[in-house]
Amino acid sequence: MKILVTGAAGFIGFFVAKSLLDQGHTVVGLDNINDYYDINLKYDRLKELGIEKNDAEIFNNLASSSTYENFSFIRLALEDRENLPLLFKAEAFDKVCNLAAQAGVRYSIENPEVYVDSNVVGFLNILECCRNYNIKHLVYASSSSVYGLNEKIPFETSDAVDHPISLYAATKKSNELMAHTYAHLYGFKTTGLRFFTVYGPWGRPDMAMFLFTDAIVNNKPIKVFNNGKLERDFTYIDDITEGVVRIIQKPIVKESDKENLFKIYNIGNSKSVKLMDFITAIEESLGTTAKKDMYPMQPGDVERTWANVDDLIADYDYRPNTPIKSGVQQFVDWYKTYYGPLT
């Protein structure tokens, strides 16, 4: 198949694009390479896929990969209403995997406008292109943050998600509502994936895994919110990638099967890990103890996340299962390789 992967220079998008390429699909990667975090990390991910920095910096022009003959890349923003349809028209994609978004719960409190531009306006443009250019299946990233103040544990996709507590979460819920509307009106399949605290090699520098490791290595204190009384369903990147790719590759339902045109799945490790245990795993991997500064709960955060993945098991025979210690060690090993030997 020919598949558009948006957010291809991002953490999850990079791994999904690589996995699809390794399985022989033709992939066009799209990313706007914004400066929310170090753009050099984004360029280095693209370099792993055979796209050089100079080629990636050219807007609205497809660059060919030197590593994968079936991969090309375009630097383009989802909210570009003029050029995005031209890309769809020229490339005739079979499926679209939309992983591009402005990420980060706390950043959404400080910069709300960019979340609406990318996550709402940009997603609408994706939906419009899908309906106008006969896309068979749209797979898109949602987030566990949509569960918000939900107190029922573990989180199930059938739970009400009416109380998001960050603008980021609100934009992700809006994506699900918009996808439902387009699936109903125009008869193409949409599948939303609620990711649970993704971590691993090539991860985002604003995520806990990276922040903690970087601080410990540089002998700086780590910020521990809610005095450490937090739990997260930490999910290793390979498990997320496997789930996404399985859903992209599975044959779609018939258009007459209206009930299955819109689907939502949790992708999480289906275990809730205490934040202090997560920190201990990092300390053990680094062979040192972290200096810890305790802070109160941050606006937009929740105390606990935990995914029920029964639907994923039933429909795709898949359950993420990487143990936290193994995943943390693999991140630390990558960090040492990417940034050089630790002093």
UniProtKB/TrEMBL annotation:
It holds the Pfam family Epimerase. Keywords: NAD. Residues 3-268 form the NAD-dependent epimerase/dehydratase domain. InterPro entries: Epimerase_deHydtase, NAD(P)-bd_dom_sf. This is UDP-glucuronate 4-epimerase.
